[in-house]
Amino acid sequence: MMYLAAEEAQNPLLPVWPEIVIGLICFSIVFFVFAKKLLPNINQVLEERREAIEGGIEKADAAQAEAQSVLEQYKAQLAEARHEAARLRQEAQEQGAVIIQEMRAEGQRQREEIIAAGHTQIEADRKAAASALRQDVGSLATVLAGKLVGESLEDHARQSGTVDRFLGELEAKAEAVR
Amino acid sequence: MSADQLLAFETDCHLFKGCGFPAPSVWSFIFEPIATVGPVEINKPMLLAVIGSIVIMGFFWAAFAKPKVVPGKLQMVAETLYDFVHRGVAREIMGKKGEPFVPLLVSLFFFVWMLNLWAVIPLAQFPASSIIAYPVGLALIVWVTYMTVTFRTNGFVGGIRNLCVPSGLPKPIYAILTPIEFISNIFVRPFTLAVRLFANMFAGHILILIFTIATWYMLGTVLGTVYASASFVLTLVLTVFELFIQALQAYVFTVLTATYLSQALEEAH
Fold first, then answer.
1. Domain map of chain B by residue range?
2. Quick one: closest CA in B to A32, which residue?
């Protein structure tokens, strides 16, 4: 600044008032524009941005939670289905066992029936054979004895029942042995 | 006009002409008034301060007047700059309590940076902050804020304690430390704040001037031109260096302000 004598240089370490005032005015204007208008503006937008980002994160969290719950549900259903299948298998096995058991019992019963029928038949045959044999043995023995004795014993034997009695004794003996 | 007041290229002095190097002087920082408005003579630094303020406001107005949640390029750049001061200085040094001082710190940083930047902007090429009045004005604002915050937070006695009695030291030391702290906090801090910025910009401008003038001074002969080109390269290097210093000084100014204010906000122990 060339104030008084142009030849005398202003000491650069001494501030002059007009410049301080101008500097202060300029700075104040800048400060007020920042403080009142620009920084509130940008801070509000930064806040909005922060909220938007946080909102996005919240949404993502919610989606994840939902996915998790659906997964749990599926797992539960799957477990239930497995359980059901196992139960059915078990049941079928049990039923199969029962059926086999029943069939076996039935088979046994039929076998026994058949055997019993067979026994009855054999017994009847044996009885028939025995009675037929008795007749034949009696008559044959009588005939044979007659030939040996030289006379017919048939009438006598028939009358006295000797043969029957003898055979009855034989049978009783056999019974006793058995 | 004395020889000192002539611009270097007006002297027509060159190397090997038997004429001394027209070194830059205090006169490099003194300007003829451009116009007179009332009692005030408007000069170049004043004009630069005014235009600088308009540039800052214009830039941030364009970026932040209608800000969008999804930012455009300009807004993104401005947001990065704002975030640098907001988070890098205010939040870092003062924490949550620094929030009310963010506008002050932001405007300080960009105002100082702009005044410094004029040093390398073509046609202007003069750092307004190398005129001590501007750093002094800013330091005054910082000092007033510093004192106000100190006494408002701690009350009068607490404020004095905050300024003069650092806590947690053995008793005898306070006898020496209290006056030192008093002088340091109340006088030295604002003074150094202003002088640091002024001296850095003043010295930087002189450095660039020396090499610019030397480049011009050594032209004319073949040998001189070789010298001149070396000097020219140095001018470029120094200009880049100055770009760094300008931002650094603006940062230092803001960081120190934040540090003082954060001390002022500390509760008395």
1. 3-265
2. B103
Mean pLDDT, all residues of chain B: 89
**Is B103 close to A39, i.e. CB distance below 8 A?**
yes
Give the CA-trace dihedral at B56, B57, B61, B62, to 10 degrees.
Answer: -50
> Among candidates B218, B235, B168, which has minimal Cα distance to B15?
B218
Of B31, B41, B111, the CB nearest to A27: B111
Report if residue A3 sits inside a domain: no
Instruction: Report the candidate in B95, B126, B109 with the shortest Cα–Cα distance to residue B261.
Output: B95
Residue A70 lies in a domain: yes
Residues of B in contact with A15 (CB under 8 A): 131-133, 136-137
pTM value is 0.72
How far apart are the CA of B93 and the nearest CA of chain A, in angstroms? 19
Give residue-wise pLDDT tens across range B117-147: 999 999 888 999 999 999 999 999 999 999 9
Give which of B201, B199, B194 is closest to B140, Cα–Cα: B194
- Residue B109: Cβ-neighbour burial (10 angstroms; 0-12, 13-18, 19+): buried
Residue-wise over B197-229: b if at least 16 C-beta within 10 A, else e? bbbbbbebbbbbbbbbbbbbbbbeeeebeebbe
- Please count the structural domains in chain A: 1
- For residues B1 and A7, give the distance between their C-alpha atoms in angstroms, rounded to a whole number: 7
Interface predicted TM-score (ipTM): 0.89
Quick one: average pLDDT of A67-80?
Answer: 95
Instruction: Verify whether the Cβ–Cβ distance A18 to B27 is below 8 Å.
Output: no
Which stretch of A8-12, B61-65, B153-157, B250-254 has the lowest confidence by average pLDDT? A8-12
Name the nearest CA neighbour of B49 among A32, A23, A13: A23
Nearest CA to CA, how far is A60 from chain B (Å)? 20
**Domain limits for position A165:** 17-177
Decide if A15 and B133 are in contact by the 8 Å CB cutoff: yes
